[in-house]
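Entry 14. Structure prediction run on the chain below.
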Amino acid sequence: MTEPLEVTLTTGPAANGGSCVARHDGRVVFVRHALPGETVRARIVGDHGKYWHADTVEVIEPSADRVAPICPIAGVDGAGCCDMAFAAPEALRRLKGFVVANQLLRLGGYRWLDEEQATAEPVGDCGATGWRTRVRLHTSTDGRLGFHRYHSTEVVTEVGCAQLPAGMLDGLDEQTWPQGAQVHVALDDDGVRHVVQSGPRIRRRAATQVVEGNYEALQRVGHRTWRVPVTGFWQAHRDAAQTYSRLVTGCAQLKPGMTAWDLYGGAGIFAAVLAEAVGDTGRVVSVDTSRGSSRAARAALADMGWVSVVTDSVRRALTAQRQRADVAVLDPPRSGAGREVIELLAAAGVPRIIHIGCEAAAFARDVGLYLGHGYTVEQVRVFDSFPLTHHVESVAVLTR
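Output returned:
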């Protein structure tokens, strides 16, 4: 059968990754830029044998949850920044909850909620726009700034993304930048803008240059201050670090003298609240592979002598630990913690785990691995930490 260029489809439920599931002549089609229950004309953009990928090019019968695009530069032929900007924010939170519940059941073997009852919680009070405080921009062949198209290296040279606060990129799009450079922009907690250019690579080395402000941005959580590299990791949503810190504080149930592990700990946001809970008679070990994040953690937590900051892989650090933790907090990358790390945690006999995941399928697989080692799920929370996108942050508290 010859692959058709365009087909008319009626979409079914939301799938992980921002698509909806449809069928054409018995074949599954994952349709982007569509909502459940819509009739759309879609362009086939990928043939994977048993299934296709498609982009919506015309909405024939729209969902009641469809709105005029909230981000002016995103869309089928636009930037890939806000891939769900056509969905009403409240409806999008329901879709995210549905996807997490579905992935937990299918991949993790755990029924959280009925899919129709699940929803993601908003983070903070800034709404769906203006929430991002850090962004990485790319450069076109003619030296202009922009965002990549979805799953593409092509740069859309428009910077008016709805995720960004007003004025965050003022003047930067008027400059000419070296081809192949990346431009990192951060608004710190004093409202100061920092701009750092990394690359292009010259003689196998990528130069880094501070264009405005400083290389490190000031960030605050509670009464504590961090100075984090602009090119390093910090929660993108302006209210996420505070939200997650409060959550970890409440869920950890630590007492003075206990031991806690902060794995994939970054700059030590969770290590700080864990250390406050166990006090100077306790112990906290924070582990991350990033030297820059580890430096930031050591500086921010220098007054807490019972915190050890380890720059290494989580797997190697766990293998080296001789004292069991009472609680482990994990915030792994999108690929998740995986089988080996979870086996090490189970073998160490950690009785309480707080697992944070930023990709629904990886999160669900990890939860299933914990269940296989005799853990039970105490609670699951899902946060809309990335409004206007399909991305979601999920938290599971597990005990054994």
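The chain has a mean pLDDT of 95.
Filed with the rest of this week's runs.
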